[in-house]
Write a structure and sequence with these properties.
With about 675 residues, the protein is α+β, with helices and mostly antiparallel strands. Among the domains are: about 280 residues, no CATH class; about 80 residues. Helices cover about 60% and strands about 20% of the residues. The strands form 3 sheets. It has a 9-stranded mixed beta sheet with strand order 4-7-2-1-17-16-11-14-13. Strands 9-8-10-15-12 form a 5-stranded antiparallel beta sheet, with no helix packed on it. A hairpin with a 2-residue loop joins β8 and β9. α2 packs across α13, α4 runs antiparallel to α12 and α6 packs across α9. The two termini are about 20 Å apart.
Amino acid sequence: MSRKLCEKGLRGMALALALAMTAATAVPAYAAQPQVTVDEAMYINADYYGTPENITVVKGVNTNGLTEFTDHGDYLRVDNMTDRRLPEVSGNSVRWKMEEGRKRFYFSGELAQAELPWTLDVSYFHNGQPADPAKLAGVSGLVEMEITATPNELASEYYRNNMMLQVLVMADMEKMNSIRAEGAQLQSAGKNTVALFLGLPGEENTYRVQIGTDSFESIGVIFTMIPATASQISQIKDLKETMDKAEEAGDALYAGIDEMLSAVAGMKPGLNQVKNGVSDLNEARKVVSSSTDGVLEKMDETIASMKETSGAVSNMDGQLKESQKDMNNLSAQLRRTKRQLSDTTEELEDTRKDAEALIEEYMEAYVTEQVEKNSALVGEISEKAAAQVTEQVTNLAKQKAVEQAGGPEAFSQLTPEEQAALVGSCALAIQSDSAQMKKLKDEATAQAKKSVLTEDRLKKEIPYYANVKKLQSSLKNASSELQSLSEDMEDLLSDTGTAMGSVADLIKETRPVLEKTAKLLDSTADLMDELQGVVKASRPYLQSGGENTMAGMVNTLEQTMKALDSTKTVRSANRTLKGLVDDEMDSLREENRLLEMDPDASIPSCTSLENPSPNTFQIIIRTREISLEDQEEAIVDLEQEEPHQTPFQRMVAIFEKIIKAILSVFESEE
C-alpha cells in the first residue's frame, strides 16, 4: 500500500492517539507546594487475535520547577524521549535528573506484561467460515470480525470498577462496499466510516462487524480503555446508594408484609376457636335464659337467709365479750398456781440441801469416831499414809535432783551413785521442811482414808450407811422432779399465756369484723333485692340483645375466616414480586460494574502502586493490520527512534504524524 493510503488508513487511530496525548499534555494548576505530577498512557501492539505482543508506557511529567524525581516500575527498558540524559536505575526505581527550567519531560518504558481490565479475543470469518487473518488481505466477499471482551478478574479493583472500553473498527468506504455493526455507533470521518462500540466496567460483550469488500484491508482493531471520571458519572454513585437503600427498604417491606400475612394466616385457627366459643356461649345464654326463673326464686331464699345470718352475727358479739372475761380469769388463776409451785420448789430444795449437809456431818463424825476406836483401821491408814508420803517425797526428790543437775539430759549423764546421792540430799531437804512434810502427810492421810474406807467396807462397818445413801438419792431425785415439774409448769404457763393472748387478740380483731360482716350481709341483702328487680326488668331486652349479638358475631367471624383464606394468594404474589425485583437487581449487578463506578477514586499508576496517582491515564491497543503491502509508517513505530534523530526530533515527528493523520480525516478526496 502506498504512503498516502497508509496515512488514510491511520486517520482514526491517529485521532485517538492525538486525543490521548493532548490530555496527557494538560498542565494543572497547584496552590500547594510544587511537586512533580505525571500523565500516563499505555500503548499496546497486539497480534491479529488481540494478544499483546509489546507493551509501552509513555509518561509525561510536569516538573513544576523541580529538577529530579523518582519513578517506580518493573521495566524491561527505559528511554528518554526529551533529551539524551540517562536515568539512574536501581531495582524497580528509576531516578531522573532534568535541566533547570524544563517544564515538561517525557520518557517511555517497556513492560513484560500487564493485567488489563479486559481480556480481548478477535476471531475472523470469510463468507461465514472461520478464516486465518494472515490470509485475508485482498479477499472479496463478506469479512466478519467477532470481538469478545471478557472482564479480567485478576486486574486491580480500580480497573474492574472504573475503566470503560471503546472498540473502534474503521473501513475506507472507497475500498469497501458496506459495513454493518449491530449495536455500534457509526460515524462518518471523511472517506472512512468508523464503528464505535462502548463497554461498561465489568461488562462482558461480543461485538460483531461485517464488511463487504472486493479487496479486504484493515488497519486493525483499535481498543481504548479510559477511566470514567466525567462529572456526570457521579450520579451513578448516587444512584447506587439510592438503589441499595431501595433494595434494603424493599427487603424490609417484603419481610414485614410476609410476617404480617403469616401472622394473619395464623389467626385463622384462633378465630375458628372464637367462633366455636361464641356458638357455645350462645347455647349457654339459652340455658341461662331458661334458668332465670329458678335463679330469681333462689335469690328470694338467699336474701332471707342472709338477714337471719346478720342477726346471729350481731348476737355473737356479746358471747365473745363473756368468753374474753373467762379467759382473763383463767390466766390469773394459772399465774397464782405458778407462784405457789415456785415457792414449794424453793422450800424443797432448801430442805434437800439441809438434809444432805446434816447427813454429811453425821457420816464424817461417825467415820472419825470409828477410826479413833479402831486401832487396826488407824494402823492401816497410817501405813498407807506413810507409804504415800514416802512415794511423794521420793518423786519430789527426783524432780528436784533433775532440776539441780540442769535438766534430764544432764541428770542422765551422772553415774548411778551420783544420781542416788543427789536424790538423797534432795529427800533430806524435803524432810527438813516441816510445813511441806505436814502438807504431804495430810494429803496422804486423806488419800489413805479414801483408799481404805471403800464403799463395801463402809456398808459393813457403818450401820444404816445404805439407808443414808438411799435417803440422799431420794432427796436428790425428788428435788430434780420438782424442778422439772416447775419448768413444765413454766412452759405451760408461757404457752397458755401466749394462747390466751392470741385468743384475746383474735377476739379483739373478730369483734369489728363481725360488726362489719353483719353490715355487709344487710347491704348485700339490699343489693340483691335491687339486683333482682333489675334482672326482672331487663330480662326481655337482655334475651333479645344477647341472641342478636351472638348471631352477628358468628356471622362476622365466618366472613373474616373467608377473607383469611385469601392470604395465601397475597403471600404468593408478594414473593413473586420480591423474586422479580431481586432478579432484576442481581441481573443489573452481574452484567456489569456500572453501579460500582466511583469517579472520585484515585487512579492507580499502571507501573507501580508506589507511584502517586497520575493526572490522566488511558490504555490504547491496536491489533496487527491486514494489508497487501507493508505499511511504512505503522502506528507501532510511532514511539520508536528513527536513525540519526535526537529525542526531541523523535517527539516532534510523532506529533507531526498524529496531526497529519487527524487533518487527513477531514480532507475531501481529490
